[in-house]
Amino acid sequence: MGSDPSRGPAVTRLCWSLVDIVSRMLERDERDAVRGDLAEAGERAGKALLQVLGLAVRRRRPFGRTGAPGWFSWDWSPHSACWSA
Question: Quick one: pLDDT band at residue 85, thresholds 50, 70, 90?
């Protein structure tokens, strides 16, 4: 996998370690595919970490029909407003 030449090797190693840790939140097949895609693309460590973290959050966060995270999604229909009042 690629590395960012403007950063030291310690930061690059740390980022790749975090990519490995965060990718464990994904299903095995998806994790293998993501790691392969990152290696094939020669992605930089920092960008790879952001991409894997974003994917892991999207896969883990329950979304309602509004597209908002679970704690923000509720039904705004007039009937629910009447029943809750």
Answer: very low
What does DSSP assign to residue 68? S
Residue 2 in domain: no
Domain count, the chain: 1
Q: How many CB atoms lie within 10 A of CB 41?
A: 13
pLDDT in tens, 29-45: 999 999 999 989 999 99
Token pair in block for residue 60: 């883990």
By CB atoms closer than 10 A (0-12, 13-18, 19+), residue 71 is: exposed
The answer to whether position 50 is within a domain reads yes
- For residue 63, what pLDDT is reported? 58
